[in-house]
Structures are given as C-alpha cells and as structure tokens.
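Design job #97: recover the sequence.
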C-alpha cells in the first residue's frame, strides 16, 4: 500500500499535472505551517537497548510528558514523568537522563542567548522517589549530571558550580568570572558559533574531577547592537566579538579535583602560542583527559593525552594540512582506550583506529567518497556504524563495517537521505528517511540487516495533501563548469514548454564544505521555489567549487580566496543555463542568505553582464567584518592576506552594479552584523548606484518572529516579479544554429 502510494507521488512529481490539479501554493500557507512535517522530538535510547523515550507535547492542554516506548512493538510502555504531576513545574521543554536513568534533568523557562546557548530553570526528577528538586533558584547554563548521578555541575554568571544532590549543598568552583572579561566552563561567542559547542566542562568517569576551559576576553574588542524594542529609549547589547585579525580570548585548560577542592592548570608544550582548544574529553581512565589544541591558522591539530595525577601530557596525534582541519565530535574511546578518529588526511573524510598511545592500528574506511556521520562503535559485535555518500554525493546511506575494515554493509536501501539513531546496544536503529519525492518517514530497522522492522511515523497526510497542488519535479543533474562536474537541481514550471523562454532564478549558499544539492525532502524554501515555478520561473541551484562531499581538494580550492572560484562557477553556470533554448538569458537572477548573500552580491557585481538582479539576505560584505575562527580558517588574517580579503569582497565591487539589487538585514544579527549592510549601503551611495533595501528591527541572523518571515518572503517575491517578470514569452526559434536547405 505504502509503496504504491509513494510510486504514485513520484509519478506525480515527474509528470505534468492534469487540469484538475490546479491549487497553487501561496506564501501564507508556507509560513503558516500548512506543509509542516511530523517529526520525533528529543528521542533517547534507554540503556536496556529495548526501549526509547520521547518528549511529547499536548498543545491543547499545554502539558509535557516523557513517554517510554518499546522498540519491537512501538507501543507506549509508560509515562515516566508528566508536567501536571510536578507542582513546581508547569511544563518542561527538554530533558536529560542521568547515566543510570534513575534521574531526569528537566528544563523550563528557557531563554536564548545566542545561536546555541540559553539560560533556564532546571529541576531534577527522581524516577524512584518521584520527588523533584530545583538545582538553583537562578537561571543557569548547561547543567550536567556526574556519571554517578550524585551531582550536577552548571554555569552561572561566568562561574562554575556543583550541586550535591545527596546533601543538597552547592559548591562554587571558580570565582573570577565576570561579564565580558572572564568565562569559566562556558564558551565565548566565537567558540559557540564556530566550534559549535557551549558547555566547556567535562566530568571524568569517577565523578571526582571536572576539566574546564577558561576564557580571558579582556583584550577582545567589543561589539554593540542597538535594541529598539518598544521603549522610549533604545538599549544596547554589548559583547566580545573578535573580528578577523583581532585579539581572541586567551584560553587555558584546568582540572578541578572535588575531593581536594583544588584546581590545577594544565600545561602542554605547544609549538604555537596563539591557539584554540576546540574539544576536551576524558578517556575511560578517570585520570587521563584528552584535549585538542589547534593553532590560530587551524591547519595544525594536536590531540594531547593529559595525566591529571602527574600533570604530564603527550601528543597522541598531530595532523597538518595545507589549508585547514575540520573539528568533529567523532573521537570515541574503546574499553582499552584505543580510539576511533576521523580525518581527511588521505583526501577524503574517513574513519581510523589508533591505540591509546596514538599509533595507527588501521584505516577503517577507504575510497573516493566521504564519511558524513559517525554513529558509534558496537563493542559486542566489533562493528562501527556510519553514514556516507558512497552511493552518490547527493545521497546519504547508513553503513556498518567491522573494526578491522572488513564486512562493510549498506543498511539503508532507498536512494535519498537516511539518518540513523541507534539503540544503546545497537540492536536497532530508527531511520529518518526522505528524498526529493518522499517526505520524512521514521522506521525501526534491524541494525544487522538494515531491514525495516516497523514503520513508526510518516508524513502520508502531507504526501496526499500535496497531490492537490501544482508542483514540479526537482530534477537532479550535473553540469561541467570551469572543468568540474557540479551537482545541480532544477525546478521547471509544471506546464513547461521547451519552445518558450522562461526567466531563471538561481539559489546557492556556496560556503566551504556546504551542500545545497541533496536528495532530501523540501525545506520551506523549496515550497517557495515551487510557488515561483507556478508563476512561470525556472529555479535552479548549482553547488560550485568549495562546497562539500567531493573530497578535500574540491572543497579547499577556495583557500585564501573566498568568493573567487565560487563566484566564477555561479557566473559560468548562469551563462551555460542561459544558453539553453528555454531560458531567457536576459532575465537571470540569483539570491542567497549569509554566505549566500555574500555570493549573490558578488555574482551581480562581477557578473553584471549575466545577472539582471540579485537578492542578498544578511550578507557578509567584507570578510574583514567577520569573526576570527571562521574567517581565518579559510583566509588566514587580513594582515597576512589583504588581497584575498579585498579582491573578493562585494563592498569593493559596488561600482560594477548594473542590475537590480535588494539588500536585506536584521539589526539584531549578532553573527553577521548589520554593519556589513550599512557599509555596503554607504559604498553604493558614494558611487551613485540605485538599489533597494529592507531592515528588520531587532531580528537576528534568522530574521524570524511573528509575521516577519511572511513579510520577508513577500518582499522578495514582489522584487523578483518586478525585476525578472512572471510572463512567459511566446514560442521562438531555437538558439542553436539551424541549417537552411536549398
């Protein structure tokens, strides 16, 4: 039944619609949630490997529960905790189990700080006694159980604390924390954004030591943002933000001994003075901590093993790269403290096994393809589970392989994007699958064979609903651009006629290691593209050089020249597409957000004879305005590479503008500051170039909240209609030369 239905849906997307299917997608539906997919929230595999927990919301009652389900039957076994049963807690928005699963950490009243960080009130629910206690009367950050479940460490006002759940006492570990000066155990802005973590402290296995990173931000320049709000006078948000070439926070590594109530500073003999500590992790030995140190250029990475008792350290792995090294969370210690590690050192991202001293045992995966996710190691069966693109760079599949690199098996069978969540004992995995023609579906799979045991949740209702709308197939292909085969998708109007000419609207992101051309289900933008196709536009996306999953050389070719090769590829791709008989080469537009806005601006300026219009949302307009970690990873510093920064930044090419340009930004963007747009605006004014722009007060990099997204996409749609036009030209003579007989 399901197979037939999805075949029908695939057929539907692949063919021209009948006249009965005339309902069009509109913006109100897209941003009103009409096409929202069902999903599984906050799933946790229980230690027994036979059950999993899910956070469930009852929107009507306004209640929250943590429910336990059986993997085999998918039936609910019990409700572990329900918000109405806790007097002091009206609701909770997230949860974390202690290691023995006898206690649950519940979060409520969460408020966002930056992209990943938040403050909240936290409670511990005891599954045995059914008692609930507050960890603190204050809003705190990153509370974390000790492995034995007796304590919770957390951050508050830039200091670290430990709450003893047995005695009820709270101990302050650090005392020098101060806003915009010293942070203990919580990352600063740039670490949070670019190294993608907030909690900078870790418990050891014996629950008697906490390792933490200290950030001294004293010399980091401050950035301020006006907050307009609704008051008579605006306020300001002031925070430390190191722009490229400026001072970073000075980081140091420390270990606090709970038994001795003493903190020691870790010292390692580095070969570089200006450095990052992007990851720390205890080994299974409670006295041995691993720490990754990286030089400021991020092309040298050392994995140190630190003995906390002796305060001695050695380098287990030292990697160097001509460009940069990516940071991951894949480091896994086995029982003997040998470890799993991923690296691009052979030109593609693969999995390696090292002994505890750092001697290579073997390279586990090999080939001209990328490992895209490492799921874990099944010690009982000596297996590693991972996700990769070996079935084509637009697809993702789940695989298993023996620790020695043999017996590799593809566990997911359907082309598209699969992502696995394994049970604690690796008996099962819940697979999330989608493709361009199949909305997300969740299935329980056998981890040995990959076979589907049961369907858990699907989006059949959405699939059926879409049958009543005018939609078009997303066509995947490759095109040779500047000597490289680039992945592309294209959406044509449902009533496409190859004898007519259509305006072309291109989308891209193009940032290092990114991917937009992927065989997966629609995002909200995809529905927008379908809407544009309904209006008579062809929409296309090309992943150029510098994007990911095609090997290190393809990805890192943009090193020290961000915005050069990627822009050249978008311009050449537009030229080639414009040469197709059904594309009106005089009406080609391009848009992007963030890095994509940087790209679309550059494409319009440098490709002013190709692109008629561009939209840039929250763009970087000069890499001199962006942060140290991201920018210097690809560009080194402005002091070392001034030409790389200036030659490829759109702010320096405004004089080339010929077409129509729409610039959009939120004033509350703590990531890509509105300074980028303001400086671009001033540059455009000074060369007397006309353009349009839109500012969203107090909106961050995502530009959302209330009616904002709908307004934004209406603004962009109207601009596209006005500049590219939505009328299809009449049939014409093909662009190819025609031989006349006689």
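Job complete. Output follows.
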């Amino acid at each position: 039944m399901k197979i037939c239905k999805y075949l029908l849906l695939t057929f539907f997307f692949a063919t021209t619609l009948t006249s009965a299917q005339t309902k069009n997608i509109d913006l109100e539906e897209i941003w009103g949630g009409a096409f929202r997919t069902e999903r599984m929230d906050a799933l946790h595999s229980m230690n027994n490997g036979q059950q999993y927990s899910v956070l469930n919301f009852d929107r009507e009652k306004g209640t929250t529960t943590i429910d336990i389900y059986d993997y085999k039957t998918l039936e609910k076994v019990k409700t572990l905790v329900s918000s109405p049963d806790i007097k002091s807690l009206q609701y909770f928005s997230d949860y974390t189990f202690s290691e023995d699963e006898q206690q649950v950490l519940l979060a409520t009243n969460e408020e966002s700080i930056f992209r990943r960080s938040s403050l909240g009130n936290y409670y511990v629910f005891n599954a045995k006694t059914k008692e609930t206690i507050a960890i603190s009367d204050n809003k705190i950050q990153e509370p974390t159980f000790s492995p034995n479940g007796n304590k919770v460490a957390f951050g508050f006002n830039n200091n670290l604390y430990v709450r003893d759940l047995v005695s009820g006492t709270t101990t302050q570990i650090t005392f020098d924390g101060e806003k915009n000066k010293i942070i203990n155990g919580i990352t600063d802005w740039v670490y949070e954004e670019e190294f993608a973590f907030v909690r900078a402290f870790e418990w050891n296995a014996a629950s008697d030591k906490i390792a933490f990173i200290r950030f001294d931000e004293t010399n980091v320049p401050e950035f301020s943002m006006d907050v307009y709000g609704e008051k008579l006078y605006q306020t300001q948000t002031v925070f430390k933000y190191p722009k490229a070439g400026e001072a970073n926070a000075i980081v140091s590594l420390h270990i606090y001994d709970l038994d001795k109530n003493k903190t020691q500073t870790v010292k390692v003999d580095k070969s570089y003075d200006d450095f990052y500590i992007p990851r720390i992790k205890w080994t299974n030995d409670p006295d041995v901590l691993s720490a990754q140190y990286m030089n400021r250029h991020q092309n040298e990475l050392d994995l140190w093993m630190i003995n906390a008792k002796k305060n001695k350290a050695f380098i287990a792995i030292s990697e160097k790269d001509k460009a940069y090294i990516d940071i991951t969370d894949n480091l896994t210690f086995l029982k003997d403290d040998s470890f799993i590690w991923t690296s691009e050192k052979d030109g593609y991202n693969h999995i390696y096994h090292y002994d505890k001293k750092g001697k290579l045992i073997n390279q586990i995966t090999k080939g001209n393809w990328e490992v895209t996710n490492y799921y874990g190691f099944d010690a009982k069966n000596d297996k590693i589970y991972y996700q990769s693109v070996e079935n084509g760079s637009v697809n993702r599949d789940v695989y298993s392989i023996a620790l020695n690199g043999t017996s590799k098996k593809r566990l997911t069978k359907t082309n598209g994007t699969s992502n696995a969540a394994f049970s604690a004992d690796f008996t099962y995995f819940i697979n999330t699958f989608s493709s361009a023609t199949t909305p997300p579906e969740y299935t329980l799979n056998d981890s040995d064979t990959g076979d589907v045991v049961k369907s858990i949740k699907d989006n059949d209702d959405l699939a059926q609903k879409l049958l009543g709308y005018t939609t078009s197939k997303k066509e995947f292909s490759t095109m040779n651009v500047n000597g490289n085969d680039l992945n592309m998708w294209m959406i044509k109007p449902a009533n496409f006629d190859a004898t007519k000419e259509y305006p072309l609207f291109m989308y891209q992101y193009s940032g290092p290691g990114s991917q937009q051309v992927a065989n997966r289900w629609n995002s909200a933008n995809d529905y927008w593209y379908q809407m544009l196709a309904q209006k008579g536009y062809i929409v296309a996306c090309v992943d150029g050089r510098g994007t990911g999953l095609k090997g290190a050389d393809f990805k890192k070719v943009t090193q020290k020249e961000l915005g050069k090769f990627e822009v050249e590829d978008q311009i050449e791709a537009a030229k080639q597409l414009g040469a197709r008989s059904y594309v009106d080469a005089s009406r080609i537009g391009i848009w992007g957000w963030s890095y994509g806005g940087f790209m679309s601006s550059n494409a319009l300026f440098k490709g002013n004879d190709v692109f008629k219009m561009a939209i840039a949302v929250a763009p970087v307009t000069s890499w001199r305005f962006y942060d140290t970690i991201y920018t210097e990873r690809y560009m080194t510093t402005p002091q070392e590479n001034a030409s790389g920064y200036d030659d490829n930044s759109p702010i320096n090419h405004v004089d080339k503008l010929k077409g129509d340009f729409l610039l959009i930004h939120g004033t509350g963007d703590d990531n890509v500051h509105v300074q980028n747009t303001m400086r671009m605006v001033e540059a455009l004014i000074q060369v007397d170039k006309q353009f349009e722009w839109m500012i969203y007060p107090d909106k961050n990099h995502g530009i959302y909240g209330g009616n904002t997204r709908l307004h934004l996409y209406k603004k962009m749609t109207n601009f596209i209609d006005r500049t590219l036009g939505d009328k299809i030209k009449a049939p014409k003579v093909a662009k190819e030369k025609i031989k006349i007989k006689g």
